[in-house]
Amino acid sequence: MHISAHFILGFLLGASAAATSPTARVVHEKRAAHPSLTHARRLDAHITVPLKIGLKQQNTAALADHLTAVADPHSPAYGQHWSPEQVAEVFAPADETRDAVSAWLTSSGFSAERLRLSANRAWIHVDGATVGEVEPLLGAEYHVYTHESGEEHAACDSYSLPAHVADHIEIITPTVQPNIKLGSGSSLAARGAPNPRQKRAAPALPAGCDQAFTPACIRSLYNITYVPKAIDRNSFGIVSQAPATYLQSDLDTFFANFSPSLVGKSPLFVSIDGGIVDAVEGTDVGEDGWILQYTMALVQPQPVTMLQVGDLATGNFISFNEWLDAVDGAYCTSDGGDDLAFDPQFPDPTVPGGGQAHSCGSTPPPRVISNSRADFEYRLSPFYAARQCAEFAKLGLMGVTVLFSAGNFGAAGTTRGYCLDDNGSVNLNATHFNPGWPGACPWITSVGGTQVKANASTSDGVVEEVWNQDLTHGGFSNRFPMPHYQKAAQTNPGQLKHFNAKGRAYPDISANANNFVAVEQGVFSANSGTSGAAPTVASIITLVNDARLAAGKTPVGFINPAIYSPHFVGAFNDIVSGTSQGCKGWQGDRGGGFQAVSGWDAATGVGTPNLGLLIEKWLALP
Ligand SMILES: *[C@@H]1O[C@H](CO)[C@@H](O)[C@H](O)[C@H]1NC(C)=O
Ligand SMILES: *[C@@H]1O[C@H](CO)[C@@H](O)[C@H](O)[C@H]1NC(C)=O
Ligand SMILES: *[C@@H]1O[C@H](CO)[C@@H](O)[C@H](O)[C@H]1NC(C)=O
Ligand SMILES: *[C@@H]1O[C@H](CO)[C@@H](O)[C@H](O)[C@H]1NC(C)=O
What we know:
Radius of gyration: 24 Å
Shape: globular
Number of strands: 31
Bound molecules: 2-acetamido-2-deoxy-beta-D-glucopyranose
C-alpha cells in the first residue's frame, strides 16, 4: 500500500481544540533496567528529537477475534484475509482522540503548523521538537547511556501525561526505549521446474548431519521434495537488520557446492531506511549471509527478498519498527523529511549511499517474513509491546506469515543467565524465567531449535532432540495471556513458580539450529543458533504457500491456530528428548529449563515440520 503525504493537522482541528484545564499527571511508561547500559550524562536541551505520539487505535480489543476468524482452520472465513485499506480503516484512531491530543499539544505551546497526522491517522508527528520543549511536556528527563559496546544511547527513565489525554495515547517516541544510538558530530543523528505431481520419498539422511548440517540434511529431515510452480504469485522476505548484510562471493562459493544452479544469483533487494549492501571482503557481515545461502537453496527457483534495514552505522538496539514502517505503514510518521536525531536516523548523511529517504509503507509485505533477531519482553514497556504486537497481528490479518527465532541460551535467554526478580528486574541471582520478544507476542510464530542426535540415521525414528549447544529460548509471557489456539497445549508442570503458566507460551514450532555448514569470508564454517531455525521454517511455509497459490487458494498467513489444531496432528516430527537451560542463579547453567515431551512443549513447540504432509493438510483447507 502506498502511503501518501501527511495531512497538516492544523486544518483538521475542530471546535474541540479548546484550552485544557490543568489536571493530575499519570506515569505512562517507564524504562526497564538494562544490565549492559550505564548512565553517562543528561541529554543537551537544544537537541532536536522526532517526537511522535502514537494515538490510541480503535477496535484493537477485537483484533484477536478478527485474526482468529481468518487463521483458524475451523472458521468459515479461513484464508479470507483483509486488504491493507480495511486494516487501516478498522483500527484508525477516533477523531475525538486526535482532537484531544492535538488540543493538548497546542495548549502546551506547539503550534498546529508543527503537527502532522500520519497517513494511517495513527500518529501525530511534532516537527522540530527540542529536548528542552519535550521534557516539560512529558514531565521527563532525557539521559545518555553507554552500552557495553561503547555506543551511546538516549532515553528518558519515565514520562507522564495529563490524565485526560493519557487514555488517548498508546506510546510516545523517543522516550523510554534505548534503541536509539547517538553518533558523533553536532547532531545526534548519525546512527548511525520439474513436475511436482510425482510424489517422491523423503531423501535418506546423509551421513554426518549431526556434525555438518547442509541443505540435503534439511530436505531429508523435513521431507522436502516439492518444487515451486507459482513463483510469480509468491514472495518470501528475510529481514536483515544492519550491520548484518551479505557477500555475493560467499553465496557463490556456497551455491557451487550445494546448489549449482544458483551460482551468480542474488536475493531481490529492498532498501529500507537507507539499507545498502555495504559488506566489504574481510569484515564480518553477520549472520544474514548464511541465512540467505540456506533460504535461497531451499526455495529455489523462488527468489528470496532481502529487506535490508539500515547500514553499517546502525548499532545495537535497532528496533523492529523500521521494517514494520516499510511493510505496513503503521509506524510511518514522516513523508521522507526526517532530519532529526533519533529512531535511528534516516537518511544517514554520514554513510556513503545511505542517503535514501525514510521508507514508509512503500514495500508490499512479502507473504512470509523471517527475522532472526530477538529481544526481551521485560525491556519493552507494556504499551510499546502491545502496540508492536498489534502490528504483527495486522500483518497476519493481511495474510502475511511473520516468523521470529525464539532466541538462544535457554529460559534465561542471555549468555550470562540473567533471570527476573519478583519485581520484574533482571538479576544474576533471580529465579523467574526471562521471556523473549517478540516470542511473547501471541500473533507471531516463534521458532525454537533442535539438533540431530549424535550419529543418527533415518532408521532411528525421531532423529532430532532439543538443541543443546547453546540451548533454545522458550517460555511464557508475563504480560500476554495464553491465546485461544494454545489452550490445549501442554505446559510442563513442576516448575510453575518460575514462570507464568497462564501466559502466551513459545516457541510454536522448531527446526535444526545446529552446525549449519556455511561460507563466511570465503571459508566454510559451522554456524548454530535459532537464527538458522526461523528461516528454515519460513522456507517451508513459503513452499506451502506455493502449493496453495498454485491450487488457486490464498496463502496461509498467520499459522499458529492451524499448526496447534487437531487437523495438523502428525504433520510434525514430535521432539521428545532434551531440556533447555534454566537460570544461572538457580540451578547452574544447564538445569531447570523446559523439557521436550510428547506433544507441544516450551523447548520445541509442536515439533519440526514435515513439508510433504503439511502441504497435504493445508491443501485440504479452503
Ligand atoms: C528488585 O528486587 C531486588 C532484590 O530481589 C532489588 O535488589 C532491586 O533493587 C529491586 N528493584 C526494584 C526496581 O525495585
Ligand atoms: C548473588 O548471590 C551471591 C552469593 O549468594 C552474592 O555474592 C551476589 O552479590 C549476588 N548478586 C546479585 C546481583 O545480587
Ligand atoms: C558416534 O560415532 C563416533 C565415531 O564412530 C563415536 O566415537 C561416538 O561415540 C558415537 N557417539 C554416539 C553418541 O553414539
Ligand atoms: C513425505 O511427503 C509425502 C507427500 O509429499 C508423503 O507421501 C510421505 O509419506 C512423506 N514422508 C514421510 C516420511 O513422512
